[in-house]
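Re: How this chain folds, sequence and tokenised backbone to follow

Filed under: protein folding, tokenised backbone structure, sequence and structure records.

Contents: The amino acid chain and a row of whole-number tokens, matched residue for residue.

Body of memo: The sequence and its backbone structure tokens, given next.
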Amino acid sequence: MSSIEDKSGFLSILNRYLVIVVLVWTVIVATLMAWDIYRVKKSTEERALSEAFANFKKDMAFRYWTASHGGVYVPVDERTPPNPYLAHVPERDITTPAGVRLTLMNPAYVMRQVNEYFLGVYGVSGHLTSLNLLNPNNKPDEWERAALESFEKGVEEVFSVAEINGEKHLRFMRPNIVEKACLKCHGHQGYEVGDVRGGVSVSIPLEQYENYKQKEYYDHFAANGILWLFGLLGVALGSRWLKSQFRATIQAQDELRVSEETRRLLLDNMAEAVFGADLEGICTFVNPACLELLGYGSVDELVGKNIHSVIHHTHEDGTPFPESECPLYNVTRQNKPAHMEREVLWRKDGSSFVTEIWFHPLAKDGKVIGAVVNFIDITERIRDEKERARLFTAMEQSREVVVITDPSGAIQYVNRAFEISTGYSRGEAIGANPRVLKSGKHDREHYKNLWDTITSGATWKGHLINKRKDGALYEEEATISPVSGDKGEITGYVAVKRDITRESRLQQARDYFTSVTSHELRTPLTKLSLARLVLEKMGRSDKLDLESVSASITALDSSINDFSRIITAGEMFTDLALYRKTMSFRDAPLSPILSYCVELSKKNLTEEKRNIEMSMSIELEKGEDQVPCDPAMIQYAIGEVISNSAKYTPDGKRIKVRMRRENENIVIYIMDEGIGISKAEKDSVFEPFYSLESTNTHSTGQYAFKSGGIGMGLTLARLIFQSHGGDLELETEGEDVGVMVVMTLPVQKATVLKDIRVGFMEKT
């Protein structure tokens, strides 16, 4: 019989006996438990019955005592009025010499009052009743009536469990036997000594007994359960010990039957190359995988030979590898395993290959007798690692942004271009979600379309406006593709993005110049055409017309000024739109700049024959007006705001200019009494080429009333102040009440050129 059959037969018999033992033990414990439950139930009933009998004896004692004295006299009050059912008793009511009225209480009367008190205090009720009542108030209930009827048949005691007002009670009742003292009150009813007059019942609430019984049930159940579990544990431990002893015996027998063929079968089917060596480094066995990797066709070519000198004799660089330095040599002497992640082995044909090798000491009876070595060819792995390294280097050095995320969108990798483009470091980006770059310039539908595309397995290409770490906006063209696993599931996403911010701004600048060419050059070109016509007319005439010459010169001067303003505005817009660093920031006082702008505006108003009163108030001490700025640009912006106020202020009105410091800002207020602007149009004046006048009267004038302009004055002024870290706002209460322009500049330079495209680029 084989060891497997022996083992199976023994375990089958053992398991049958274990089942029988467990069943017998369970029956024993269940029997003990049933006996405990019976004893607890019986004990609880006896205790409740004992209490009921005690209360019965108490009631009977009261009755006997009261009856033996022929009743008792007590003062008459509301609680104890004279008993009308004792009216036949002589001297039921008496009066003491002191004038106190007393009334006779028979045993039933006394017991009723005592039991009412006892019920209210202790919850136990007693009742003296009869089938032949003297007092109808003592009538029996259904349970008592049945008991009284059984007493008539000779039953001496009745008790049972019944519900009173929804709660369980033990009800106990014994007959009330007529004695001689009873005849005083009940003799007229025809009773004689020894007759059953009625009965005394007692009701005991069972809640505390039920609670006690349940607790005892639980305690006994827990105790028997623990006893049962300990028994099972003992059976399990005994079974385990028996099985372990049996398995040890079978294992010892199996180990004795293990043959060289079994060991060879194991080695032959291993995918890894394995060989063994003794203490001298002589090969003792090899498996087929080892022979194949090393290029040998027979075991005899390696077994019996010094394995180091055959396959491990030379380093990768071609220098000799001494046997004394070989890990195999040290493993057998130090009895410690060794591992080499990259090592060269040599084939039979003289070629080499890179492997990862593990050396394990082989011991018998606690003594090292050799070593077992297994290795794998990692040539392909190294090639893949080099390929990955080249790919990684390419991504790191790429000028385009590369981002790799997991399926949930958490960033797993970013290249150097990402750090440069966004301002976020690699450490800040890894683990974050690309939503940190959201600018708020795209609606939810835009991102939904993106995610619907890539989660469906398709590639998304599109344009994004994102936000750098410092809050500046930038634009990029993005291609986002899903990465699929072996089973086709999406394991992540890779995004390749190119920053096109500068390209976009260049295009916007080109669009601006196109708009200027088509929109603003018409007026000065019209003036030049008029000047040309005048000059042609003069050329055809022999007489010099000084008035025509003066008109031509005026037209030429006006055209030159118009061209100058258009070119200046264009240059400034280009500098701001392209985010150029040509702005010359330095600490400069604002007071001289503001004063110059005001005086120049007064001069121009006079030349335009405008009647506008202009005043200036500077509420700053000397040195308090220093701000970091480009003075030329600030001067240009203030001049544009003042000229704009003048254009919409009728003659006879005023313009007030005021400058003061508020917290960390210098604030300039320009308040006019002009025609104002509706609240609906307030924000529109900052749009490029927006005008409050008709396009038919639009011109490049600066100070003439409602003369129009190039349509870029307030737009550029706001861009300039925003690029300095400040702002320009327009406040109005509506038409015909004037306008107040509020310009702010920070005292300290908080940022380098703020991204001024917000709120403007999208409109152009």
In short: Confidence is low (pLDDT under 50) at residues 694-700, 750-764.
